[in-house]
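Q&A log
Question type: sequence-to-structure
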Amino acid sequence: MSRNAKINTLLLLIVAALAVLPLALGLGDDEKEPFTGADAQAETAITEIKPDYEPWFSPLYEPPSGEVESALFALQAALGAGVLAYYFGLRKGRRQGAEIARAEQGPAEQTLTGTAPAQKASAGESTRADAEQV
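Response status: OK
Response body:
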């Protein structure tokens, strides 16, 4: 197993443990809503401290239920992950394409473009084209 595969496996196990351990250990069983978001917890804390607090803004769209809100949040996260995956995949594909194009260039083309003179100089070969490039 390569080093990258070991690291990826370890990271995957850590993420799985972070997702499963709170459920397995029963964290939050004593609360009414055990796994509420930070927004709901902040709203509760604010109303406990100052009951007459009025928010400055109201949401543009209020989903009809918590399930719809969660689904929209998951959709947003999936779209963001898709955009990031597309971007990084595109960058990797371009890099691989450039490497393949460089590998397919013949030795004569590399000499003309100036990528191979160091190899010839190290071998002790000297041509007029090499002298002109310097």
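Response note: The helical segments are 3-24, 38-49, 66-104, 107-113, 117-123, 128-133.
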